[in-house]
Design brief:
The complex is a heterodimer of chains A (about 375) and B (about 575).
Chain A lengths: L1 H23 L6 E8 L7 H16 L7 E5 L34 E2 L5 H9 L18 E8 L1 E3 L2 E4 L3 E4 H13 L5 E7 L15 E5 L23 H11 L9 H5 L4 H4 L4 E3 L13 H4 L30 H5 L13 H18 L4 H4 L1
Parallel strand pairs in A: 1-2, 1-4, 2-3, 4-8, 8-9
Antiparallel strand pairs in A: 5-6, 6-7, 9-10
Helix pairs in contact in A: 2-5
Chain B lengths: L1 H13 E11 L5 E11 L17 H10 L1 E10 L4 H4 L9 E8 L6 H16 L11 E2 L19 E6 L6 H9 L15 H4 L4 E12 L7 E13 L10 E3 H5 L12 E7 L9 E4 L5 E6 L2 E9 L15 E4 L11 E8 L5 E10 L6 E9 L3 E12 L2 E2 L4 E5 L8 E9 L3 E11 L15 E3 L3 E7 L26 E7 L3 E3 L8 H25 L11 H13 L6
Parallel strand pairs in B: 1-10
Antiparallel strand pairs in B: 1-2, 2-8, 3-4, 3-7, 4-6, 5-6, 7-8, 9-14, 10-13, 11-14, 12-13, 15-16, 16-22, 17-21, 17-24, 18-19, 18-22, 20-21, 23-26, 24-25
The chains are: A alpha/beta (about 375), B alpha+beta (about 575).
Chain lengths: ~375, ~575
């Protein structure tokens, strides 16, 4: 009897311990990454760059460092010669908020933003000389936020007015990421016309997707600024930015609040979302699980010692040595082994020779 | 005690950081500000044990130097074009866009592979598209771009030069550049570097130069020098609101409160040579320090503000220099050498590149080395190359030409031309435009394609004797180019980049052709196929309901049906 009671207490204690341990690791991720892409070129697409930069700003403010953000901007709006206020990108009329800021690091810019580079970043298949800041070095405990904006249609998203990515390609890229264990959970947000068509084809687990409009609907822009002359932001991202400005790193808002951002009355289009592939209940997922960051800090106190340099005399060189240049000897060309053409020519010559004069002359050569 | 102080001195002389700002009012009312930050470090990157403790020298650049065995690295990002006729000569010239030239050490076996990797790494460090530098825009100059640091011998196989004229400079390039400074942008002169004011200017250029230099006059020891310079020209009308009055606050929207604590010297120089008795402009707060330096062949006088002295900041604890003009200035000293370049011709098939060089010296002639790197899609006809001065033919004493290879290598043309005194020399060459494959066009091909600036290197005769001893006491802006002789100084002039239109196809044509072909096939072949294979069968019409019931009853009765 007593043994049974002790056993029961022990089991309860284990379960309690498990529960607290479980709560500590409830979200299951150890690092956060963000891939923010603006796919449009030309000055009149200013609003797409402003969209991406406002999400970049929120994500940086909530804790994700530049080394964990891959920012791709297809055109430069801030230092564009049409911009009346250089080095600024505004999101609100009357230039209230400069989302470009003073501390921005764009990883892919201009012509580098292509479908190929985007898919290579997601799947990790980059050439070996790619620097770290241009890679998505996520592992199976990473939560990744992917944000796309630009011009799109039913089933595709246009990159730089010259190529497009289809929803099937995107779904396959995510499946590659899942099979290579490159993410723990993925939040996909897209702000384009008919954005919901882009997440229709996803089939990998642990993906949650949000879009600014349904199939058949257009996403609309928010407000023009008369001094700059273009529309500054898209509606969905404008209200998303307003929502995120209220979030701080310790906030407890969950995904259900995010789904309510920009109802039809404000957005004119109907935002959609998809959670059937996601294993956890959206109500238990915090906004900061994707927009904020969990970071590891390592401190080291070592200091190595340096050695002294050897003694030797040096001198500067003439910048324009005229006499030397005029009397320059021809350069030593590096010796290259004869290439295919020369070898073929010699083989032909030898063949003709032996055909004409017979094989007995071979002994004179070898 | 003595041992401790000696080792502290040792550590102190190992590193040195200096910062300075030179402000030169220009004749047109604009103002030219040049920041120079120099870090000297006595170390050896090339030995086996890797250097791992970095104090003032940025670690990212130190690792780049040791990994790729770089002897010298010069990179510049520029927005705008330097107008030599209106502004004079800059302290450090740079072409529009991005320019990178590197001297590798003799120990490098595969220079091209190291160059490719180096450009990728630098594109990550500076957030720029330097990864677009490949064999189609890299050249190996044979006589220009001699090393600016100390070296034993120069073999031009270890030099690579590339330029990206299309590269845009914005805050994302300035941010990592500022992070390389020892004090960052938190203290010293770098607090003035605010992007909103810097990019609202006529000319902006930021550069990084790494080279080995002599430590002292005897040159027994060498140290690595990292120079970061930032040149900016503020326009009278856009930044100055039309009023001829400049102050640090008006230019940078900030004032100075302290020098960088890690700097051994932190100074501001204002060029007052044209204002000896304060008759043209007035400088406040007044400073007793005056310094003279020979720079760009001229002896200039500067008022100096030493930020390491507390008295410079006065009672308000902040320094806001104010330059107020009283009357308009007289004439400006004409620059002795400047150049222009333009494309002549019409249509989308052929054209002509003209490079015009002006020698404004009244009686001296001097040699210039012209370097032209033209992309492969402009096919130069070198037999049409002509060099004329004052209407007569002027044969260059040295020509090095490397023809281009389609999609692999650009044209490289280097010529040593003697410019006669007070003359205009024109270099013309005809070219033909190539048709690119449709995947090689950029997403906005109707903008045009850029051709990089020509580089003109010259030894210009100097009116004042130049100082050939490179010592530490010279201000930074006058000690960049090493001086070998006293009667001339080295100058580099960049021309404008060219923008040429290539014949551009209509990119919607593949889509149009597919639609049209499919329609023609469907309508034409489809109708023919139907005509040939369709067979007609007679079908009974459906009888009416009454007839159907009557037939049904008749069938039951076994009586013949109605028709």
């Amino acid at each position: 009897m007593l043994a049974a009671i002790i056993m029961l207490i022990f089991i309860c204690f284990c379960v309690h311990f498990q529960n607290t341990a479980g709560q500590f690791f409830s979200s299951g991720h150890t690092n956060n990454w963000a891939v923010l892409v603006c796919t449009s070129r030309f000055w009149f697409n200013y609003r797409h760059v402003a969209n991406t930069l406002s999400v970049y700003r929120s994500v940086k403010r909530l804790g994700i460092p530049d080394s964990h953000i891959v920012l791709m901007l297809a055109d430069d709006m801030a230092c564009n010669h049409r911009n009346p206020k250089p080095a600024t990108v505004f999101s609100h009329r009357n230039m209230e908020l400069n989302v470009y800021g003073d501390d921005v690091e764009v990883d892919y810019r201009g012509y580098e933003v292509t479908v190929e580079n985007f898919l290579r970043v997601l799947t990790g298949r980059l050439p070996p000389s790619t620097p770290r800041s241009k890679r998505l070095l996520s592992d199976d405990r990473s939560n990744i936020l992917i944000y796309l904006t630009g011009h799109g249609g039913n089933g595709f998203l246009k990159f730089q007015d010259s190529e497009e990515i289809s929803n099937v390609e995107l779904a396959d890229a995510f499946e590659q990421m899942w099979q290579k264990r490159r993410y723990n959970e993925l939040l996909f947000i897209i702000d384009t016309c008919q954005g919901a068509s882009m997440y229709e084809r996803f089939y990998s687990p642990n993906i949650m997707a949000l879009a600014s409009s349904q199939v058949g609907e257009d996403s609309l822009s928010h407000q023009p600024d008369l001094a700059i002359g273009v529309h500054l932001m898209d509606r969905y991202t404008f209200y998303l930015l307003e929502f995120l400005e209220d979030i701080h790193p310790a906030s407890k808002s969950n995904m259900n609040d995010l789904f309510k951002v920009c109802p039809k009355s404000q957005c004119v289009s109907t935002p959609g979302h998809r959670t059937d592939l996601f294993l956890r209940d959206p109500g238990s997922v915090l906004i900061t699980d994707f927009f904020g960051s969990v970071r590891k800090v390592e401190i080291t106190m070592e200091q190595p010692y340096l050695l002294k340099v050897q003694e030797k005399t040096y001198s500067y060189v003439d910048q324009l040595p005229v006499s030397e240049i005029i009397h320059q000897k021809p350069k030593q060309k590096d010796w290259h082994p004869p290439d295919g053409f020369i070898l073929g020519l010699w083989t032909l010559i030898l063949l003709v020779f032996f055909k004409t004069y017979g094989i007995k002359h071979l002994k004179h050569i070898f | 005690m003595i041992v401790w102080s000696q080792s502290a001195l040792q550590l102190a002389t190992n590193y040195d950081f200096q910062e300075e700002l030179v402000i030169r009012p220009l004749h047109s009312g604009d103002i030219y500000a040049s920041f120079q930050f120099r870090t000297l470090w006595e170390t050896d990157f090339m030995r086996e044990n890797k250097v791992s403790h970095y104090r003032l020298f940025p670690k990212s650049l130190g690792q780049v130097i040791s990994k790729f065995s770089v002897r010298e690295l010069h990179i510049s990002f520029t927005q705008g074009y330097w107008r030599t006729m209106q502004w004079g000569q800059p302290f450090l010239p740079s072409p529009p866009g991005a320019e990178l030239w590197v001297w590798f050490q003799d120990s490098v076996t595969d220079v091209d592979a190291a160059w490719k990797e180096l450009t990728n790494v630098l594109s990550g460090i500076f957030c720029a598209s330097l990864n677009f530098i490949d064999s189609t825009n890299t050249v190996q100059p044979s006589a220009s771009f001699k090393p600016l640091g100390i070296v034993n011998e120069t073999d031009h196989r270890f030099l690579r030069y590339a330029t990206l004229p299309r590269e845009i400079v914005c805050t994302e390039n300035l941010t990592p550049w500022k992070k390389l400074l020892p004090c960052g942008s938190k203290a010293g002169l770098a607090v003035l570097l605010k992007s909103e004011k810097l990019f609202h200017s006529s000319f902006f250029s930021q550069t990084v130069h790494i080279r080995p230099v002599c430590q002292d006059r005897e040159c027994k020891t060498t140290s690595w020098e990292l120079r970061q310079t930032l040149n900016v020209v503020f326009d009278l009308h856009t930044s100055g609101q039309g009023k001829r009055e400049w102050s640090l606050f008006k230019m940078f929207s900030r004032t100075l409160t302290e020098a960088c604590p890690l700097a051994s010297s932190s100074k501001i120089y204002i060029d007052v040579t044209d204002n000896p008795q304060e008759e043209y402009f007035e400088l406040s707060p007044a400073t007793p320090l005056l310094s003279q330096a020979v720079v760009l062949g001229d002896r200039r006088t500067f008022s100096v503000y030493d930020l390491t002295q507390q008295v410079t900041f006065g009672t308000v604890r902040s320094l806001n220099l104010l330059i107020r003009w009283k009357s308009t200035e007289g004439s400006m000293l004409r620059p002795l050498l400047h150049a222009e370049r333009y494309v002549a011709g019409y249509g989308l098939q052929t054209g002509e590149i003209h490079t015009v060089m002006y020698n404004n010296h009244p009686f001296r002639s001097f040699p210039v080395l012209l370097l032209d790197s033209v992309p492969w899609y402009l096919r130069l006809y070198i037999h049409t190359l002509t060099v004329t001065s004052k209407g007569k033919d002027n044969t260059p004493s040295y020509i090095h030409y490397q023809p281009s290879k389609d999609r692999m290598r650009p044209h490289l043309l280097e010529m040593l031309v003697q410019l006669p005194p007070h003359s205009v020399t024109e270099v013309t060459v005809q070219f033909e435009r190539a048709l690119l494959k449709w995947t090689e066009y950029t997403p906005d091909p109707n903008h045009g394609f850029y051709v990089g600036s020509s580089v003109i290197s010259a030894l210009v005769p100097s009116s004042v004797a130049m100082d050939t001893n490179i010592t530490q006491e010279q201000p930074l802006f006058s000690s960049f180019f090493p001086c070998k002789e006293e009667s001339s100084y080295f100058v580099r002039v960049y021309t404008e980049p060219l923008l040429v239109n290539l014949p551009t196809p209509d990119f919607s044509m593949p889509y149009n052709v597919i639609c049209l072909t499919c329609t023609v096939v469907a309508v034409g072949y489809g109708s023919l196929y139907n005509l040939l294979t369709r067979s007609f069968q007679i079908e009974e019409p459906n009888p009416r309901l009454a007839k159907k019931i009557a037939n049904f009853i008749r069938r039951i009765r076994g009586v013949p049906l109605l028709s």
